[in-house]
Amino acid sequence: MPFATAHTVSLHGAVGHLIDVQTDVSPGQVGVTMVGRADTTINESRDRCRMAIINSHFDWPATRRITILLSPADLLKRGTHFDLAVAVSVLAAAGTVSPVALERTAFIGELTLDGNLRGVAGVLPMVLAAAERGIRAVFVPEPQAGEAAMVPDMSVVGVRSLGQVVAVLRGDDELPAAPPVAEMSGARLLSWRGRERLDELDLADLIGVADARFAIEVAAAGGHHLLLSGPKGCGKTSLVERIPGILPDLTQEEALELSAIQSLAGTLDPMTGFPTRPPFSAPHHDASKASLIGGGLGVVHPGEVSKAHTGVLFLDEFPLFRSDVIEALRQPLESGDVTIARRDESVTLPARGMVVLAANPCPCGDYTSDVRASRCQCRPVQRREYRTKVTGPVADRVDIVRHLPPLGRPDRSPDLDRPESTAQVRSRVEAARARQAERYAEESWRLNGQASGPVLRERWPLTKEGQRAVDDHLYAGRLSRRGATRVHRLAWTVADLRGRARPGMEEVDTALRLRLGDPLLLSMLERAG
Predict the structure, then answer these.
(1) In a domain? residue 300
(2) Over the stretch 265-321, which tens digit does the pLDDT of each residue have?
(3) Which helix (H) or strand (E) holds 219?
(4) In terms of residue numbers, what domain contains 349?
(5) Residues in CB range of 77: below 8 A, 6 or more apart
(6) 417 and 360: one domain?
(7) Could you give phi then psi for residue 142, rounded to 5 degrees?
(8) How many Å apart are CA 396 and CA 388, to the nearest integer?
(9) N or C: which end of the chain has fewer CB within 10 A?
(10) Are residues 380 and 423 in the same domain?
């Protein structure tokens, strides 16, 4: 039979499309024609596949006309992982293997000229997409078989070469020998002592910042975005670095989502299995827009905001980031995803992690409102320009605002000098998230910080007294409509932390203070501690 179809997957961000690689081998002018909006890397696969087939000691139909269609033809396709599907479809059309053996099977992998395979990025989301579209078996490079096996009910065949693929399709008893598959070019090459430094940090080490400790507990419990400001050395970074420790372990659904993103970025280690702990990312303030939000030439790669999905993205010295980077954060702060639009495609990546911003009051970091204690040498215009880098639309999308005092100011209560440990706070955060998971079981979100404002007001409203307090601040101009929704979400998180069935006036007052940056009541801090 001079016609055969193999299957593979084309990735557009985190969305996978099943591609039929249809090959026709028939009499006519000798040559190879590939159609179906293939990019340069796929067009080059004609030569790679021809040499791989010949050097694997199979017959290339050199005296026939070969036509290869990547269907659907209107979808832009790119990537070297098409090689294996192209080669297998040519062999099936030429009669080397039976076309029936290719049914409901996908082929993923890059071929070298000698017929061996190389690993490719994005195997997990490719296999997930294939499984959703009825594929029940997949051939992948041997080192990535564990990654593909993360998808339930999928038969995974890890192979080293094209010869081994053909042997499996034919049902041969023995597989031909082949060298181990080469690692991807983007594989991690360097490790160092101290990579697990954050695991050794404990909240019990921080004394005198009860207000900010409570704020990060609320942020962690509800997945709220947070802004910490204060002079240098007041403890902003120390607080943020302890947030991952109070976050619960990832659920199975969250672990699969994060693994898919890591696979797209080429950083997933299949030997370790599913990640269990939320990620933490702290890029330098010199980071580019593409590295933080996502992008790149050709294939769109996830940025740090997507790599921190389900975890924490910490942007220290936030006003020092470039203006285009700061403004690009509007979408992930608001909707929890990132859409990168280009001429030929639009790619959407998830970004539902906590975004934590830290800022000094001025470029030198020494300014305080107490003139006697301030050692700031910045001119007023410098301080004003520094603060205006965090524009109103960006600041309005941050749920919690905390202003930390200079180091050395005594706490307001001797009882708060014995701070709780990370384990104690984490147990409350886990209980609060469990309440949210039960409440939002039928919704498209998991946490209060992601909840829809209209749905909250309709199904989980505040008390009349609490709503009146929010409206008073709204009409007085202290809150925007967006800010009022965030106060509603925060009130539910405070109630979840306290085990309340519904937010009362005390929870609403605490939420307003967290949102507006006002000091918290001592009674709330003592109750939290």
Answers:
(1) yes
(2) 878 776 666 788 999 999 999 999 999 998 877 678 899 999 999 999 999 999 999
(3) helix 210-222
(4) 225-240+270-398
(5) 10, 19, 36, 37, 38, 39, 42, 70
(6) no
(7) -50, -45
(8) 13
(9) N
(10) no
